[in-house]
Amino acid sequence: MRKPGNAADRPAPSFLTQEQREALDAALSKKRAEQPAAPPVPAAAVGDDEVAKPQLGKNPHSEGVKTKRELAHDHHLNRKGKGTGRTKKAGAGGKYTWGAMLADGDEGATVDPNDPNYDSGDDTTRAVSFHEERSTQIAMFKKAVAMLLEEYYNSGDLNEAAVSLQELDHPEFGHYAVKRALATAFDKHAREREMTSVLLSTLYNEVIAPEQVRKGFTAAIEGLDDFKLDVPDVVDQLATFICRAVVDDVLPPSFVKRIDGPAGSLAAELRHKCELHLGAKHSAERLARCWGSGAGFKFDETKDSIRSMLQEYAASGDKEEVRRILRDLAVPFFHHEFVKQALLLGMDAPSQEPFLGLLGLLSDTAEVSTSQMSKGFQRVADNLPDISLDNPAARERFDAALKAARAGAWVEEGFTGAPTTPSTPGTPGAELNGTASTPFHPNVQAFKASALDIVREYFDSGDASEVAERLAELDEPGFHNIFVKHAVQLAMDRKDRERELVSAALPDLVPRIISGDQVALGFTRLLAGLDDLALDIPDAARLMELFLGRAIVDEVLPPRFLAEAVPHLEPDSLGLAVVQQTGTLLSAKHAAERFDACWHGGVATIEALREQMAALLVEYLASGDLKEAERCLQNLNVPHFHHDFVTRSLLTAFEREGEAGKVLGLLKQLADSGEVNQTQMAKGFARVEARLDDTALDQPRAPELFKQWKAQAQEQGWLAP
């Protein structure tokens, strides 16, 4: 079996053969034929009042492109294709005419720079045109950002917000986006302010450059007087936003010292409040929750809030309190989780009538829509086999709840409650389509728990051999599909490092530990449950394409798996779309090389990183190019390892004392730009301080120099005191 990274050994630039591609196309066509085609939507169905998204970079005043028929009937256009199509002399140049009435003879004349009477001060045509176009682009950018923020507040989709802002393709306007986000959040609730802080942290240095972020906050400070008219507590809010940004390493601590204003001004008051917040005891922990919990935005905390709400309801029976808390959460798109948890608690309670009464009330008042109610019932139906392991009466109680829901019209008309995803196989011989009647193995829950522990430990250690040993010790080869499924699911919710670890581990485990059939079963279950997974991981479809393509390229799965998986998927499911897209990607040229690098080399050895950092430092000391050094460090994409670069830089400064100023200048630049955050900077200094005694054996002046440099860094504001 090939190991990941052996792209040079692969013979074909297109990974799928023509026969494999035809087999996949045939399977997809057969699956689509199972679903009747939707009727075409007439053009008139699109409302005239629909507003199209602004497209930046285009002249909003330009006319549409003419068709050939329109051009043929345009009598101003030269039939030989010459000319601009405009009337001669603006309509005043025909025979027997006196010219345009009341027209100045020089009007419309082209200004000639070679004319002796030419005055450059009067020639403002080009400047006006540039400023007009720039003003139009800025106005459209602000409008697009406003739409983007409203959509983000409704959906909570961070990835979509980042992609939408990046697609505007105006990085030089990033400060407008920051200011608009702050201004919008001032008029919102704590939920939206928390979402804004998280959004700025996510966009920082990925979509919006650090200098643009600082410029945006500076613009908000300059507009304090205007904000104060509409938002009386704007100083408190902006101070909290700034301090939260400092804690999140979005702004450097020195930013607060740069807030300047005369005594008694709003800027002076803002700076004083920021200093109080940051100087308080346990300020980092307090500011991390300055807007309250992430309930209503973060999935885990929203789930916890819903669970606590329902548990309190089970004890008190206060339906009005549940309605109030549910409204405050402001997550109508996530009400299916509320329905699911209410049903599960009702199944475990002595009587589920109180929970059914609560669902009925919320349905009657339209606080929970029928689509969300149906989705919540469906999620419980899909997991009934697992739920029945712990609660044998689960099926009976679910049927009673479903009967009540149909009678009260809580769910959509025609809703059956039948499972839509394959059930968990209890034995090695279980069918993929979930029709096997073999009872569940009693050890399946224990294996799931062990599989999750193995994957989490692997993410920490990176030792694939330990994974193989643990799986062999469990001695449950029929459950290995569960390990594959959970490994990929957990990696989807992590970063590229963990995704690369999972993709790299599978070739080592297959077929030595995990059989090919078990891998295929695990990926099929992932594809079948992708619609539910996308509720928790919005980017699940794209990530699944990369995991699936990488597995095929690494020969963990055969290419024919794509065609074989199609019959087990629903015609309109997300999993089917992923299979089709993966086939397209594998059919492209150099597919193997692209999938080999799909996680951007997420796993790098510590030794390799240290060598690259050492080379970066040597090159900087030779050239003195701060921007190039910052760019190279950014390209390494290891912000969690920047403390090692700080440590190495200080040790180099001890050895080359004459160039210590250049080294400290580099560290200051990296801190001010936000490339190295305060946590990593402080950690690097702490590591050097801890080994000063050993360093002094080779560099006797090291303790004295370190004390001097640390005081200098704290005084300049790029190292936290």
TrEMBL record:
Write down the superkingdom of origin. Eukaryota
| Annotated Gene Ontology cellular component terms | cytoplasm
Which keywords does UniProt give here? Cytoplasm, Nucleus, Repeat
Q: Where in the cell is it found?
A: Cytoplasm
Q: Which residue range or ranges hold the MI domain?
A: 140-261, 301-421, 446-567, 608-721
Where it mainly occurs, coarsely classed, is: cytoplasm
Residues of the region (Disordered) are 1-92
Start-end of Basic residues biased regions: 76-89
Q: Where is the composition biased (Basic and acidic residues)?
A: 60-75
Q: Which GO terms describe its biological process?
A: negative regulation of DNA-templated transcription
Concerning InterPro entries, the annotation shows:
ARM-type_fold, Initiation_fac_eIF4g_MI, PDCD4
Task: Return the similarity comment.
Answer: Belongs to the PDCD4 family.
Protein name as catalogued? Programmed cell death 4-like isoform B
Organism for this UniProt entry: Chlorella sorokiniana (Freshwater green alga)
